[in-house]
Specification:
Blueprint (H helix, E strand, L loop, with lengths): L9 H14 L4 H31 L3 H4 L9 H9 L18 H11 L4 H19 L3 H8 L5 H4 L1 E2 L13 E6 L2 E12 L6 E7 L7 E6 L5 E6 L10 E14 L5 H37 L1 E2 L2 E2 L4 H30 L4 H26 L11 H11 L6 H13 L4
Parallel strand pairs: 1-4, 2-4
Antiparallel strand pairs: 2-3, 3-7, 4-5, 5-7, 6-7, 8-9
Helix pairs in contact: 1-2, 2-5, 5-6, 5-9, 6-9, 9-10, 9-11, 9-12, 10-11, 11-12, 11-13
Length: 410
């Protein structure tokens, strides 16, 4: 698919799938293969579009974008990604999305994050907020937002992606009055809070242990949005500290069901977070290999030295394993195989930790220049560390996995 051409609409994909679903009744085996081939073709087209977009829009200005908030923000890049439907991948086709699954999302994130993981993190943040609304049965709310959005800012939904509210209680306070809900207090590190028109945020009444999610218009005068926080990595996926002064909000789902919604959606998107780390690893390896083929040391290219070959081989092994793990996680999730939730969490923890090691090696391959911004390796290391906090801190995710494995977790 040529760069600049929009990905096929969700309705087109849906019609093809619908036709083959009915033919499958008479010859299950044969027609199921044909339907799968159509889906695989769509994913390959998506991967190619994401790769071309990454090279065209992210590579050249990566260093400049990484200076945000002290440098320019990539608003134009976001708008182009929106127009090319990268934010519509998992959105149901019934409300204007492409209607593809988590596997397709993982494919796109893997390609996009090889140059700069910021865009991938923006897409994942928005997807998480959308899925909260969908799983809460608030499809009408989401449709009212995406249906009229012409600009990416109107389409995006902010949310605190890098925290599990049940583990670290960064939530707003809610006050109920005359059947309406109002939020007050400070909410730290609201991702996309400075660029999105609306947000999906956790909040609870004073003294209440459980929390709920609320949809809030960030343009209200009773909402104070702070300056962008200088983050460790993925700096063009900006976050802000937000203060609510009795700002009106709309409840999402059942009251007190916030933790259940968070776990359900986070588990579904663990593979997507792992795909971001996988893409970072591949970008690191490509940069390291290219440099090793050009750099002379000791009378030969450094790629010809056995120790360098061993280091690059170790990186390649980790990348191949990450590919297999993400693919298997998506397969188990699609088939709802027993224990797929544990598999997804374990895969994410492992791949994210592996990415930190691979990016560390990527810096070392380049020697002293590996610490310079020109080559992108030090940025990839920071991005790999930052994405580990997605859906909560790694040590706490490990404890959650232990509970699941031993039967303590629900």
């Amino acid at each position: 698919m040529p760069y600049g051409q929009k990905f096929p609409t969700g309705q087109y994909v849906h019609r093809l799938t619908y036709c083959f679903f009915h033919l499958e009744r008479r010859s299950t085996g044969r027609w199921r293969v044909i339907m799968t081939n159509i889906e695989e073709t769509g994913i390959r087209m998506l991967a190619k579009a994401a790769a071309e977009f990454s090279r065209s829009e992210l590579t050249a200005n990566r260093e400049e974008f990484d200076r945000f908030p002290f440098g320019p923000f990539f608003s134009t890049v976001l708008q182009k990604a929106f127009e090319l439907d990268f934010f519509h991948i998992t959105l149901p086709d019934s409300i204007g999305g492409i209607g593809m699954g988590t596997g397709a999302l993982c494919t796109a994130l893997d390609e996009l994050c090889r140059q700069d993981a910021s865009l991938g993190a923006v897409i994942l943040t928005n997807c998480f907020a959308q899925e909260i609304l969908l799983n809460a049965g608030s499809t009408d709310m989401l449709e009212s937002i995406v249906g009229k959005a012409k600009k990416v800012n109107s389409f995006l939904l902010a949310c605190p992606l890098f925290n599990n509210p049940s583990e670290i209680r960064h939530i707003a306070k809610v006050v109920e009055k005359d059947g309406r809900s109002f939020l007050s207090g400070k909410l730290a590190y609201l991702v996309l809070g400075g660029i999105a028109d609306a947000a999906v945020v956790p909040a609870a009444e004073e003294g209440q242990e459980t929390y709920s999610y609320y949809l809030i218009d960030l343009g209200q005068a009773s909402v104070t949005i702070g300056d962008p926080v200088l983050s460790l990595g993925m700096r063009c996926c900006p976050a802000v500290d937000t203060v609510f002064h009795l700002a009106e909000a709309v409840p999402v789902g059942k009251q007190g069901d916030g933790d259940n919604l968070f776990r359900k959606v986070a588990t579904k998107l663990y593979a997507a977070a792992a795909a971001i780390s996988s893409g970072i690893m591949k970008g690191t390896f490509n940069e390291a290999l290219s440099y090793a083929r050009e750099r002379d040391q000791g009378g030969r290219k450094i790629v010809e030295w056995s120790e360098m070959q061993r280091m690059l081989a170790d990186m390649a092994v980790h990348i191949k394993i990450a590919d297999m793990v993400v693919s298997e996680t998506c397969r188990k999730m699609d088939r709802k195989e027993k224990g797929w939730e544990q598999h997804a969490l374990a895969a994410t923890i492992h791949i994210q930790e592996t990415a930190v090691q691979v990016t560390t090696d990527g810096v070392q391959v380049l020697g002293g220049v590996g610490y310079m911004q020109d080559f992108g390796q030090e940025k990839r290391f920071r991005d790999a560390k930052h994405i580990q906090a997605c859906f909560g801190l790694t040590p706490l995710k490990k404890l959650r996995l232990f509970d699941l494995v031993t039967g303590k977790g629900k």
